[in-house]
Design goal:
Elements: H1 4-9, H2 11-26, H3 34-50, H4 55-67, H5 79-93, H6 98-109, H7 121-131, H8 149-156, E1 157-164, E2 170-177, H9 184-204, E3 208-213, E4 216-217
Parallel strand pairs: 2-3
Antiparallel strand pairs: 1-2, 3-4
Length: 219
């Protein structure tokens, strides 16, 4: 049985993640390297476990989260689909079962806005983990004067937490934003589609998605 440790130890996977992040860096995108994919993987796994799903389904969500951005090594455009195909090759080579490969690649292929949809619980957990990872440390640009709107919004986020309610009925993204760096409206200008996608993903898991910015409920 394929384990997440097999994915972590794979030099092939490490290379693709590093290269994909470098490609995005050359385009001026925020960090998509090991910090991001590990955070997404851990969130997806823990969310499914907390909601009572099986250990195995949660581990498959971890694997999907860890591999979800490798398609950026090909191109940012349609990276979800190219990443799913790449993941298929990796997982097949590692001897994964077809049913589990299908669960992982369907989540990866449906995670990015524009073509995304929470087709399964694994896809839903992946979407929530990916789209709620907003934080200052993802900004690569060290020249504040050269920040674009994505840099400003991410850099303005001083605190970011995602919480499952105690009664397991809702999931809350709580942000503290320095509005002198970026007004709240800028966040919605670039992330509204992602937040609506989070709402759909939460619904797939029987949850309600909430967004709170600086103590004020937004969604």
């Amino acid at each position: 049985m394929l384990r997440k440790e097999d994915i972590q130890k794979s030099q092939e996977v490490k290379t693709y993640i590093a290269w994909a992040d470098d490609m995005l860096g050359s385009l001026g995108y925020t960090e998509h390297s090991f910090a991001h994919v590990t955070k997404v993987a851990q969130f997806a796994q823990k969310l499914l476990l907390d909601l009572g799903y099986s250990q195995r389904k949660a581990e498959l969500a971890w694997i999907a989260g860890y591999l979800h951005d490798i398609g950026n090594v090909v191109n940012r455009y349609n990276h979800a689909q190219s990443g799913a195909v790449m993941a298929f090759r990796i997982l097949d080579h590692l001897g994964a079962e077809p049913d589990e490969i299908s669960a992982i690649v369907s989540a990866i292929g449906n995670h990015d806005e524009g073509t995304a949809f929470p087709v399964t619980e694994i896809a839903a957990a992946l979407i929530l983990g990916d789209k709620t990872d907003v934080r200052r440390s993802r900004v690569r640009n060290s020249d504040f004067a050269a920040f674009d709107i994505h840099d400003r919004v991410n850099f303005a986020v001083e605190e970011s937490t995602v919480e499952l309610s105690e009664d397991h009925t809702s999931v809350l993204l709580r942000l503290k934003i320095d509005t002198e760096i970026s007004p709240v409206m800028d966040y919605f200008e670039i992330f509204l589609e992602r937040m609506l996608l989070c709402r759909k993903a939460a619904e797939k898991l029987g949850l309600v998605f909430h967004l709170n910015i600086n103590g004020q409920a937004q969604l």
